[in-house]
Amino acid sequence: MSIVVYAPASTANVSVGFDVLGGALTPIDGSPLGDRVKITKGDYGFSLQCVGPYSHKLPDDFKSNIVYDCYLAYQVAIAKLNKEILPVAMTLEKNLPVGSGLGSSSSSIVAALEALNAWHDYLLDEHAMLTIMGEMEGKISGSVHYDNVAPCYLGGMQLMINEGGEISQTIPSFKEWYWVVAYPGITISTSAARDILPSQYRLSDALTYGRRLGAFVHACHSNQPVLAASMLKDVIAEPYRSQLIPGFDQARLFAQQSGALAMGISGSGPTVFAVMTDLPQAELLKNWLTENFLQNEEGFCHICHLDEQGARVLGKEL
């Protein structure tokens, strides 16, 4: 028997919600944009094989791979339920570039844990799973945060709560929005992107951040897409991180001229996103970014919708 799980790419922050907003992404042409994990019955304990276009970026020693950490964490979690973990052979299909700002590590984490949970007949509930996912993300980035793992796992647009027993909740999204997502082919580590941020912010910036985030969430719940799009501005990270991304200013200018409602940095970068409502304009922007923003052959550009499903089992075979 085998189980295959897919976990989509995600965009964190979404400009207006630093560390508290995230959305899952799926290309409109149906192509996959996320990692897959396959589990089969193992002969002993744990084994891991890595395949896929970005597998060469992963450590050779499986004990240094986050998927192994997920296996250990799941083992500890179900032991508290007096359950033993089954021997598994896992295959990670690494389809997302590392350090891209598309939730690459979260995709591997979510796919691995969802596969393990499915393999063990869903011993852990959603809250327990999200908690472990956040902890695993913290091992990669240095701090526990959920703005990639939550949308990757649950789908749609997620607002991080992380209080009162709630980790995140889904907020309404706009089906007419196209998300043009461009990865230039270079890498920016999450830790480096955080190091460039100031340790303190002006009160005026903090107030602007809170006002725009509140207005965005309100606009989503009250179905005001124009208001929501106008709030997609970043005073926390983009003024500092944009200098790490070659060609960002030019890309932003062309996006504005092409009819984009908003443009920003996906997660910690270097991927950028633009929100549009006109598909021909989105295609025009995609072509321009492909020719002018991508730095090498590893870069790519997709037109996406939000992925409403999140992580899912693609198939089971006996």
TrEMBL record:
Q: Output the InterPro entries linked to this UniProt entry.
A: GHMP_kinase_C_dom, GHMP_kinase_C_sf, GHMP_kinase_N_dom, GHMP_knse_ATP-bd_CS, Homoserine_kinase, Ribosomal_Su5_D2-typ_SF, Ribsml_uS5_D2-typ_fold_subgr
List of residues binding ATP: 97-107
Listed Gene3D superfamilies: 3.30.230.10, GHMP kinase, C-terminal domain (3.30.70.890)
Q: Does the keyword Thylakoid apply?
A: no
Q: Where is the GHMP kinase N-terminal domain?
A: 77-156
Note the superkingdom of the native organism: Bacteria
Pathway terms, separated by semicolons: Amino-acid biosynthesis; L-threonine biosynthesis; L-threonine from L-aspartate: step 4/5
Q: Where in the cell is it found?
A: Cytoplasm
What Pfam families does the annotation carry?
GHMP_kinases_C, GHMP_kinases_N
> This chain belongs to which protein, by name?
Homoserine kinase
Natural source organism: Psychromonas arctica
| This protein's encoding gene | thrB
